[in-house]
Amino acid sequence: MTGTRSASRAKERIRVGIVGARFAAEFHCDAYGRTGRAEVAAVADIDEAALGAFARKWNIRETFADYRRMLERDDIDLVSICAPNYLHMEMAVAVAGAGKHIVCEKPLATTVEDARRVRDACRRAGVTLFYAEDWIFAPALRRTCGIVSEGAIGEVLFVKAKEVHNGTHSPYAKDARTCGGGCLIHLGVHPIGWVLHLLGREGANPVIEVVGKANGGAARNYVHKDNTGEDWALGVMKFADGQHALVEGNYVTVGGMDDKVEIYGTEGRIGVDLTFGSPISVYSRRGYSYAVEKADNTLGWTRPAVDEFFSLGYVDEIAYFVDCVIEGRAPHWGVSADNGVACVEVVDAMYRSDAVGVTVKGRW
Ligand SMILES: NC(=O)c1ccc[n+]([C@@H]2O[C@H](COP(=O)([O-])OP(=O)(O)OC[C@H]3O[C@@H](n4cnc5c(N)ncnc54)[C@H](O)[C@@H]3O)[C@@H](O)[C@H]2O)c1
């Protein structure tokens, strides 16, 4: 009887390990806590100070300087990879080898080859990889997908989507070798992943052409000469059914992170403001602690986020992944390993397009 009860309890909650203990780890940890179905049991980071501060803040008992030691724990079901982009491949392959499910932050890897290696390693090991594209779970964008699929704006013709702000906080993202590029792979991958989710029809409507444009990094950057990756980029995606999407990522936008989507259809159009759509308007002569991500002050008129982790999709994303693990379900279209690979392939095709100044054809 006791055995039966503890077996069913084990199915109701999972234990999670997090690799990386800084920016992304914060919203993963917050979101796991909100599920009520997951306990963050361990965290790993090579930075001792960051590791200690993070573990204290979130009351995590086990800390590891080497994430591989964390993987030896057999009570961990799921590992969140919140480490720099260039380590995603090595870490995901190790986590899969340890037989644990994976939530991997974007981008899945820094090269197409590495992204495929991750997908293949997970398949071989029989573990599930959840590609953490949070936009897909942002409540405003989910509602938007619902309105589009009801037919409210007729046939979709054209989509514009962007994530832009004034520069990355992470030293790893400033270096093209550890980031895999610049703002295109680091920020542009969000709108790319979301547009693939919106228009891709589970693979029935693939992207068949892309064009990319980026300013090149270092001295060629507009603002961030210390970033070896580009600080301004855009891409165009053409889908097999004929729709086009314009996607943008840049670090030249001051005033706070600006995530916006516009969708144009034959019978209407939709605009979404993910980051400045707050119902609160504040005018402050003195400023206050925090308004929105990457805003450098809070003076004058501001639109403070009510719950940024929720509105950007992290909370519902992690809740969905935890439910999938507990219920043994595969992730839906947009957040599978294949989708993570496709995003890296599209980014790579955009960089190749920019390098040679041509349209790149393919099937993603
Ligand atoms: N979905 C989103 O909106 C979003 C937002 C921010 C970051 N991210 C992604 O999350 C990941 C982490 O980004 P971040 O902003 O938290 O970076 P960060 O630089 O703030 O933190 C990275 C952490 O990883 C640690 N680290 C480096 N090498 C390690 C190793 N070998 N083992 C363990 N830890 C190691 C660093 O010490 C650091 O504490 C990146 O892949 C990034 O693209 C996603």
Structural account:
- Helix 6 (112-125) links the parallel strand 5 and strand 6.
- The model is unreliable at 1-10 (pLDDT under 50).
- Helix content is 38%, strand content 23%.
- The chain has helices at residues 2-12, 23-35, 48-58, 67-71, 88-97, 112-125, 139-149, 171-174, 176-179, 183-199, 308-311, 314-327, 337-356, and strands at 14-19, 38-44, 62-64, 78-81, 101-105, 129-132, 156-164, 207-214, 232-239, 244-250, 258-265, 268-273, 282-284, 300-302, 360-361.
- Helix 5 packs parallel to helix 6 (112-125).
- It contains 13 helices and 15 strands.
- With 364 residues, it is of the alpha/beta class.
- Nicotinamide-adenine-dinucleotide (NAD) binds next to helix 2.
Order of helices and strands: HEHEHEHEHEHEHEHHHEEEEEEEHHHE
Main sheet specs? 7 strands, mixed
Rg, rounded, reads 20 Å
**Binned strand content:** 15-25%
Mean pLDDT: 96
Low-confidence stretches: 1-10
The N- and C-terminal alpha carbons lie at a distance of: 51 Å
What gross morphology would you assign?
A: globular
Number of helical stretches of at least 4 residues: 13
**Secondary-structure class:** alpha/beta
Secondary structure: helix percent: 25-40%
Q: Looking across the biggest beta sheet, what order are the strands in?
A: 12-11-7-10-9-8-15
| Small molecules in complex | nicotinamide-adenine-dinucleotide
- Strands, count: 15
Summarize this, please?
The protein has 364 residues and is α/β, with parallel strands linked by helices. It contains 13 helices and 15 strands. The strands form 3 sheets. The protein has a 7-stranded mixed beta sheet.
